[in-house]
Amino acid sequence: MRKGNYVECEEYGVIKITEFVFSVLHSVGKGIANSDRLLITLKHKFIPLTKEWLVDKFGFEKKGVYYIKSYTINGKTYEFVIWVSVLGNFYLNINDLEVKYVHKLQNIFNALSGQELDILK
């Protein structure tokens, strides 16, 4: 997990991670606090990758069994390619790495392109 990843939580639905707080905690009354902030623990789960996430939310273009998103680095355009198996599993077109969750796709895309994979407005 990293800042910018999407997860689903029971309380709020799909949310974007914007901050991680690591500190020594101490008890304050009935809550748990760190110096100036009340910490709330959200129950979250990873979001399964689907065709809807690829096309509708992240803007991938569907071409046959492939989902393609172009990105540019130093004026050169590259294609980030995901393919779907007959069983409906998604794989990165590099080493056929299976990608099961939205946050994993975001992390791989960021590592290769240096760009964030955000939900389209």
What can you tell me about this protein's structure?
The chain has 121 residues and is an alpha+beta fold. The longest helix is centred in the C-terminal third of the chain and has 12 residues, at 102-113. Helices cover 16% and strands 35% of the residues. A four-stranded antiparallel β-sheet has the order 7-8-9-10, with no helix packed on it. 14% of the residues are buried. The protein folds into two domains: 6-45, no CATH class; 51-113, no CATH class. Strand 3 and strand 4 (31-34) form a beta hairpin.
Radius of gyration: 18 Å
**How much helicity do the residues have?**
10-25%
Biggest sheet, open or closed, and with what strands and sense? Answer: 4 strands, antiparallel
Beginning-to-end CA distance, first to last residue? 23 Å
What does this entry show, briefly?
The protein has 121 residues and is α+β, with helices and mostly antiparallel strands. The protein has helices spanning 51-57, 102-113, and strands spanning 6-9, 13-16, 26-28, 31-34, 37-38, 44-45, 61-63, 66-73, 76-84, 90-92. It folds into two domains: 6-45, no CATH class; 51-113, no CATH class.
Comma- or semicolon-separated keywords:
10 strands; alpha+beta; 2 domains; 16% helix; 4-stranded antiparallel sheet; globular; 3-stranded antiparallel sheet; 121 residues
Write the layout of secondary structure elements.
Layout (H helix, E strand, L loop, with lengths): L5 E4 L3 E4 L9 E3 L2 E4 L2 E2 L5 E2 L5 H7 L3 E3 L2 E8 L2 E9 L5 E3 L9 H12 L8
Antiparallel strand pairs: 1-2, 1-6, 3-4, 4-5, 7-8, 8-9, 9-10
